[in-house]
Amino acid sequence: MTFSRNILITGGAGFIGSHVVRLFVEKYPDYRIVNVDKLTYAGNLENLRDVAQRPNYIFVKADICDHERMNELMRRYAVDGIIHLAAESHVDRSILDPFAFARTNVMGTLSLLQAAKVYWESQPEKYAGKRFYHISTDEVYGALELSRPQGGADGHGPYGDELFTETTRYTPHSPYSASKASSDHFVRAFHDTYGMPTIVTNCSNNYGPNQFPEKLIPLCIDNIRHGKPLPVYGKGENVRDWLYVEDHARAIDTIFHRGRIAQTYNIGGNNEWRNIDIVELIVETVDRLSGNPEGYSEQLITFVPDRAGHDLRYAIDSSKLHTELGWAPAVRFEEGIEKTVRWYLDNQEWTDRITSGQYKEYYRRMYGE
Questions:
Q1: Is the pTM above the cut of 0.70?
Q2: Cα-flanking dihedrals φ and ψ of residue 331, to 5°?
Q3: What does the domain layout of the chain look like in residue ranges?
Q4: Is 272 a catalytic residue?
Q5: Active-site position among 63, 80, 138, 222
Q6: Is 139 among the residues known to form the active site?
Q7: Cα radius of gyration rounded to whole Å, the chain
Q8: What dotted CATH number matches 5-367?
């Protein structure tokens, strides 16, 4: 089969990556989609079992830090586009093991950049028609001032006048955000030094189906199921901007195809919530959908000591993306939480297989390793 494009997506078995892979496989049957994932603890190929047999989909288990393997994959599949999502992403884990984050997020990105450079520069057309798209985080910008809500009938946001823009100065405060900031700089440097066609996006917090249960929203849903405490850092007053994962996947699709080379685009939900308010909304939603009495699980909310370097507020200005490319989030937060809770309640075995470790068996069944 002849394909019009050969797109390599890294980290495609993870939360955001699996939604991007599925969107591209289904929307572009004339593209060959090569999903490269190391299958660390957060990589779960069950997320993609519905597209695993599609003729335009290929999975490769590989570490992006393995530079020779990246060189080989570029040549074997004649890759002309890269969507780079592979990363260690949990802030708490970065505090415990910063070396793992530097290795994957910095050296892994550099390995991939160099492989793309060597292969594309070996082609007669060099960089023509090529694209290296790096997905990053709003955490590289540091923190914003926090104030009381000024607008919104529901009392949620904005929690301050200042927003992160594409020109906001980088001020990372955790090993995770520092590693992502470094990788962003390497991507831009490869454009400035070698002329590589690169794009960087910085996105706010994602949520939705298939998110690994260590993160706030799926953790709370699962803990309510099992009557376990719902840990909330400090007083729960930290504010984040939240974006439904399918909206992020649509943004990635739009930017990959129509974004301007050497540009940065911020992707956000225009949707600021305090952590404690999110947890209370999840409690209300899970109790209602589970048939529990109103307020039944509120007693599970447990305030725990704040983590080191916990930024107070993130909020994204996505106006550049909206103005230039016409993208806007489509899913309201309350609607997205409802959809997310329903998915986890309807797919409890998915979470149970993760907590038991059984989800790793799917890869062995599929690929015999």
A1: yes
A2: -105, 115
A3: 5-367
A4: no
A5: 138
A6: yes
A7: 20
A8: 3.40.50.720
